[in-house]
Design brief:
- By secondary structure, this protein is an alpha+beta fold.
- The chain folds into two domains: 39 residues, no CATH class; 209 residues, no CATH class.
- A four-stranded mixed sheet has the order 1-2-3-4.
- Strand 1, helix 11 and strand 2 form a beta-alpha-beta unit.
- The longest helix has 17 residues.
């Protein structure tokens, strides 16, 4: 498999080795070797999507992309009720697509990514981790979701700066609103996304947490749990949810 050139053949062989890969991923002594044992994750797009689909089925895998158009306006409306800040207002403007037409120097994310980031405001970071008195800002937490990388700069430069961060998106382009490629950064390596849109890229990022059995960043635990249980409906009623997560689900689904 490591010497195959045809993508369809790689996909078939990765599908055939899914169970072996899951055993490896859930072996604490060997889980950190998965990208070296299966290096095609580093050069073949779509493998994360395929493994998630095998694990949960097509119906579950398609939920974010199918439901987002109806959820996004509700997320924006709920975020508008929060205490106003300069950054929140800027993100809201981007989420509503206002600044693209009004500002030729617009440098914000596109509407979908901005709306996803609004969830970090609706389900903000809480103190925790090794030092329970430490609480990072919402803007800092967003770096655990997506970071922008100017296309003209070295990708290695970004990887060196983000050592220790759990999986996150690297959006490469000429501006945040003009992204050419998305990568998932994990274990100091770049996994190319099949996605060409920010929403599809976030879909791949979320699925990577399950495909590689990685814990959510503590600062985004509530946000990712909300997406897991409310949108993908994975382990709803089983996984522990904070009152904020339950409350937001009730507001958005009613």
């Amino acid at each position: 498999m490591n010497h195959c050139a045809e993508k369809d053949l790689i996909l078939d062989k990765m599908k055939a080795t899914f169970k072996h890969r899951q055993l490896l991923i859930h072996d604490a002594a060997k889980s950190n070797t998965v990208l070296s044992v299966f290096p095609r994750f580093l050069d073949t797009k779509g493998l994360i999507l395929q493994d998630f689909d095998i694990q949960f089925g097509t119906e579950t895998a398609s939920r974010l992309l199918e439901q987002w158009d109806s959820l996004k306006p509700k997320i924006i409306a709920e975020a508008r009720t929060l205490n106003s800040t300069l950054h929140l207002n800027s993100l809201l403007s981007d989420a509503q697509g206002n600044r693209q037409d009004e500002d030729s120097d617009w440098q914000g994310w596109d509407s979908d990514m901005s709306s996803i980031l609004l969830l970090a405001y609706l389900l903000p970071p809480s103190a925790g981790g090794r030092n329970k008195s430490t609480k990072i800002s919402i803007r800092e937490a967003m770096d655990h979701i997506v970071q922008f990388h100017k296309a003209c700069r070295s990708l290695t430069e970004h990887i060196n700066k983000t050592e220790g961060l759990q999986p996150h998106l690297l959006a490469v382009g000429s501006a945040k609103s003009v992204i050419h490629d998305f990568y998932i950064v994990m274990d100091g390596k770049l996994l190319p996304c099949q996605a060409k849109s920010s929403l599809s890229a976030f879909d791949e990022l979320f699925k990577a947490y399950f495909v590689f059995s990685v814990s959510y960043p503590h600062c985004l635990s509530a946000m990712y749990t909300f997406i897991q249980t409310t949108i993908y409906k994975i382990d709803l009623g089983i996984v522990r949810e904070t009152p904020r997560v339950k409350d937001l689900r009730a507001k958005l689904l009613n």
